Amino acid sequence: YPRRYAPETQLSKFNLSEIEAMLESYTKVLFVRDPFQRLISAFMQGMGSSPSFSSFVQDVLDSGQHNAGVTWKPLVSLCRPCLVQYDYVVVFGFLKQELSHLLRRAGLPADSLLPEFTDTQVQWTYSWLSEQMFSELSLQQKKQLSHFYRRDLCAFPFSSSLLTD
Q1: Which three-class secondary structure state does DSSP give residue 90?
Q2: Among 41, 62, 51, 60, which Cα is nearest to 130's?
Q3: Helix (H) or strand (E) holding 30
Q4: Closest Cα partner for 130 from 93, 95, 98?
Q5: What is the pLDDT of residues 15-25, one digit of tens each?
Q6: Angle, vertex CA 51, rays to CA 144 and CA 69, nearest 5
Q7: What angle do the packed helices 139-148 and 35-44 form, to 10 degrees?
Q8: Residues 27, 31, 37, CA angle at the centre, nearest 5°?
Q9: Exposure b/e, 123-158, CB count within 10 A at least 16 = b
Q10: 102 vs 142: CA distance, rounded Å
């Protein structure tokens, strides 16, 4: 798509026909991650000033979806999967298989371009950590989080998420 604007121009600055033309001319890839794991990651990186994970989660819930930080905002509200037809959705935890497939489809040598992944170790670690952090939450917080991320849980394949229960 011929650019008439600076590369950093947001998609929302274009009119509908320009947006459609641009989106049709690109291969659209969406990277997604279990919302609970995103919360844990944000907490571990010190994104909030809360002393405990439970109080951090309460701060997130109290802020609401419209005021949520981009790090823990529901993905559906960030990437608009109902409006944008993504060609690929890559789920965190399956990066090696999915990126390898994606590169092959693009006609690129997958083996030489990918770094070494440790998906199995990462999945095990996040599974253990998720269970530990989840046990710190009250039943009400668990229900509120499931409601907060309900559209993400419906839109993406997070079948093993603790929030789907």
Answers
A1: strand
A2: 41
A3: strand 29-32
A4: 93
A5: 888 888 888 88
A6: 55
A7: 110
A8: 175
A9: eeebeeebeebbeebeeebbebbbebbebbbebbeb
A10: 35
- The answer to whether 56 and 43 have CB atoms below 8 angstroms apart is yes
Only one residue has tokens 């989840």, namely 134
pLDDT of 134 over the 90 cut: yes
Is the pLDDT confidence value at 8 over 60?
A: yes
Scanning the structure block, which residue is given the tokens 């919302």?
35
Residue 144: closest CA among 82, 54, 21: 54
pTM assigned to the model: 0.76
Question: How many Å apart are CA 163 and CA 78, to the nearest integer?
Answer: 19
The C-alpha atoms of residue 3 and residue 126 are separated, in whole angstroms, by 41
